[in-house]
Amino acid sequence: MNGLSGNTWFTVAGIGLSETLLLSIALTGLFALLAYVLGRSLSASPGRLQVVAEAALTLMTEAVAEVVPPAAVPRVLPFIATLWLFILAANLLGLVPGLSAPTRDLSVTAALAVLVFLAVHVYGVRAAGWRRYLRHYLQPSPILLPFHLISELTRTLALAVRLFGNMMSLEMAALLVLLVAGFLVPVPLLLLHVIEALVQAYIFGMLALIYIGGALEAASTSESPSPKEPAT
């Protein structure tokens, strides 16, 4: 994989289907199937899969509740949880022989960053309305509007490049170590990959959560009227 478009596995009607695209679609379908199965098999006496799913959901709910207001948790949690799970699974695909992690492809990380960019503004507009939400870009002075816009673009770019760079460098480092030391050190490399996959998924999701929390805070700030001066 070249890190930009991936290796083409199939060609349909002249359109190349890359490894990255097919793996991303497969992950999406797998999570949809798991959600359907778990939703249909919920029980008061849960099995192992339900216990693991409930424990993971509890951890993610607590993490989201630490950043956004309690009323916004049910709205924000599905998006952030999906990001965490998808990125973690995509990162771990690099451990499968013959496969590469979709997140070492810049097109995937850029798409995820654009989703975060759009979600931030969707949540902000839903919280306060588009007029009040957009008004916070003019605070504390309209002169700062260009800087606010540049900040929105640069942090989106940083999200995409950070995840892409970390996963690309991790797989390249693992390949170099295997070439130099052979297969004498597979277990430490596997552990390093698993830890890095967890860390990168957590960081990406937390940054997205912080950006959404900032949009909700800006919306609430712009929504509240300015205090009146006391009468003399």
UniProtKB/TrEMBL annotation:
Keyword Ion transport included in the entry's annotation: yes
Pfam families, A to Z: ATP-synt_A
Transmembrane spans: 20-39, 79-99, 106-123, 173-195, 201-219
CDD domains: ATP-synt_Fo_a_6
Membrane topology: Multi-pass membrane protein
Localization, UniProt: Cell membrane; Membrane
PANTHER family: ATP SYNTHASE SUBUNIT A, CHLOROPLASTIC
Summary of the function given for this chain in its UniProt record: Key component of the proton channel; it plays a direct role in the translocation of protons across the membrane.
HAMAP family named among the record's database cross-references: ATP_synth_a_bact
The name this protein goes by in its record: ATP synthase subunit a
Species this protein is from: Crenobacter oryzisoli
Gene transcribed to yield this protein: atpB
